[in-house]
Amino acid sequence: MNGTITPSTQYLDVPGGRLAYDDTRQGAGTPVVLLPGMLDSRRAYRHLHPLLTVAGRRVITMDLRGFGESSIVWDDYSPSAVATDVLALLDHLGIERAVLVGQSYTGATVVKLAGDAPQRVAGIALIDAFVEQRANALMKGVMAVMGAAMVRWPAVWGYYLRKMAFPGPRPADLDTYVDGLVAALHTPGRRTATRGHVNGDSAPIGWSAAVRCPALVLMGSKDPDFPRPEAVADLQAEKLGARKIMIEGSGHYPMADNPQAVADALLPFLAELA
Predict the structure, then answer these.
(1) Are 62 and 90 spatial neighbours (Cβ–Cβ below 8 Å)?
(2) pLDDT tens digits, residue range 141-168?
(3) How open is the CA angle 101-22-81, to the nearest 5 degrees?
(4) What is the SS3 assignment for 80?
């Protein structure tokens, strides 16, 4: 990752399928689990991962159900189901407590797990998540149309990533990375997984009320997924009793377009938890 040695892929069999993950194994403080967003792979953190490991953190990344190197066909792709996978992975690795970082779709996952298993979660960080967003009828309609289009035409996902998701700086490897994601959507069975993600509840209302651990909300100031990104971050911070940090100039994936700013926000938060 970014000139550093990439941890080798490992696998965990759980009811319903196989999960792919990697683990640096070594590092100070509470382990950090990084979860990618919808239709993405754990390589979404390829630019942030080395910054955290160089700082001495133990970092674990996991592919979601249906994507990356995890198995494709499952009976449930929701953020809640992914939360059970994270818990199974912590059990497998013998980790009693971890800090969970969820991006976009998996912001709901880390909130769910923090509420359901507080003894296992030392803290959570949300990166451009949809948690606590009550969409109006127009927005729901737009999302439904976009979701259906991505299921049928994978190139729509590629267009979003290339033309919309990065309104500010673009990672140097963006085109190559997006080519890989779009190609993956053509894999047999992936349409079912795509539909499962698109239909998952990534914007739950009320889950934050059960969270008692420290929380951090990170949001790209130019995230195209939200008409007013800072207002979304303010609401999430209020509901979670969290600190809010805006990543200036970033779009929906600040860990890719401004990984240093994300690391500069995450590392003090991790140090406080330690």
Answers:
(1) no
(2) 555 566 667 777 789 999 999 999 999 9
(3) 55
(4) helix
Whether the CB-CB separation of 190 and 72 falls below 8 Å is answered with yes
Question: Hey, which residues does 23 pair with through a beta bridge?
Answer: 60
* Model pTM score: 0.94
CA distance readout (Å), 70 to 150, 181, 251, 253: 20, 14, 27, 22
Q: pLDDT tens across 33-57, in order?
A: 999 999 999 999 999 999 999 999 9
CATH 3.40.50.1820 matches 10-273: yes
Neighbours of 133 (CB within 10 A): 17
Inter-residue contact 104 to 230 (CB < 8 Å) = no
Count other C-beta atoms under 10 Å from residue 8's C-beta.
7
Q: Which two three-digit tokens encode residue 213? A: 């651990």
- End-to-end CA distance of the chain: give it in Å, rounded: 26
Place of tokens 């990104």: 229
- The Cα–Cα gap between 64 and 236 comes to 23
Structure tokens at 203: 């914007």
| CA–CA gap between residue 18 and residue 167 (Å, rounded) | 35
Q: How many H helices and E strands in the chain?
A: 10, 8
What is the percent of the chain where pLDDT is above 90? 81
Decide which of 153 and 68 is more confident.
Answer: 68
Q: Give the DSSP letter of residue 209.
A: G
Report the chain's C-alpha Rg in angstroms.
Answer: 17
For the chain, the structural domain boundaries read 10-273
